[in-house]
Amino acid sequence: MRKLTLLAIVGLLAQLVDGSLGMAYGVTTTSLLLLIGTNPAAASATVHLAEIGTTLASGASHWRFGNVDWGVVVRIGVPGAVGAFLGATALSSLDTATAKPVMSLILVTLGVYILVRFTVRGLRTDRLGQPLRARFLGPLGLFAGFVDATGGGGWGPVGTPALLASGRIEPRKTIGSIDTSEFLVSVAASIGFLLALGSQGIDFAWVVALLLGGLVAAPIAAWIVRHLPPRVLGSAVGGLIILTNVRTLLGSSWVNAGDTTKGIVYVAIAAAWAGAIAWSVSEHRSDAALSPVAERDEESLTPDPV
């Protein structure tokens, strides 16, 4: 019962982050399941089964608050579902000893990308309103769906920064559209895992616990997406993903690091993580302080009506 309660809390917190940032439910919950010794394919299957419910609730909540671009949902979600099915099949064919460090390496890579992307560059807004082409969304969806299934998460970490980096869709609609299209990805990945694995290694009580936590958080996250600074949250989530999965890599047969090495690596990551969050907070405050000035300057250049 204690483990189920913990999983529900993790599901709640992960969905709060995912619903407000457009990423991290899968990578956060999968990282925890790997940490407690779950088979990689079973961990990803468990998370994707839970995500069928959480993404449906999240999508409905984002739609309710006007955070969804349905054209983007369809053009990225359908190829994403294809990629997720292929990724689930690929992961299911790997043995546990190989799959666990492979998955952790994918998650570390995603974590580094999130941390650097949001800490260094923040959000781009100079191209808002320009159309997103299918030739961009299709391959992006296919790749993000494949990474999502093989890494236990990755739809948001790949898709959300890519759409934000394009600068063509406002952040709240990027997050809402990615969260909504993830429903298609979760269904396809779950079908792939169930066909390849059956129910082997999947604890459906864990699925329900993660689902319940996510269902509670989904409408809250959709409401607060307008108020939380994505830059700071991105730095925080990226560091958490890196720290969690580096621990798995250092203990794997690939590395098999000693306690001293592990300690040095953990301290270095923690220091870099703290510095990244501090920088993001500072930059967010600077941007917030400059915004009223920019607005006043724009108003001063606007001629008075005759």
UniProtKB/TrEMBL annotation:
Subcellular location: Cell membrane; Membrane
Annotated transmembrane regions: 102-120, 181-198, 204-225, 232-251, 263-281
Its membrane topology: Multi-pass membrane protein
This protein's record includes keyword Calcium: no
GO CC, alphabetical: plasma membrane
Major location (coarse): membrane
Record's keyword terms, sorted: Cell membrane, Membrane, Transmembrane, Transmembrane helix
The UniProt record lists the keyword Membrane: yes
Pfam families named among the record's database cross-references: TauE
InterPro entries per UniProt: TM_pro_TauE-like, TSUP/Inactive_protease-like
Family indicated by similarity: Belongs to the 4-toluene sulfonate uptake permease (TSUP) (TC 2.A.102) family.
Family annotation (PANTHER family): MEMBRANE TRANSPORTER PROTEIN MJ0441-RELATED (PTHR43701), MEMBRANE TRANSPORTER PROTEIN YTNM-RELATED (PTHR43701:SF12)
Protein name: Probable membrane transporter protein
Organism: Knoellia flava
Taxonomic classification: Bacteria, Bacillati, Actinomycetota, Actinomycetes, Micrococcales
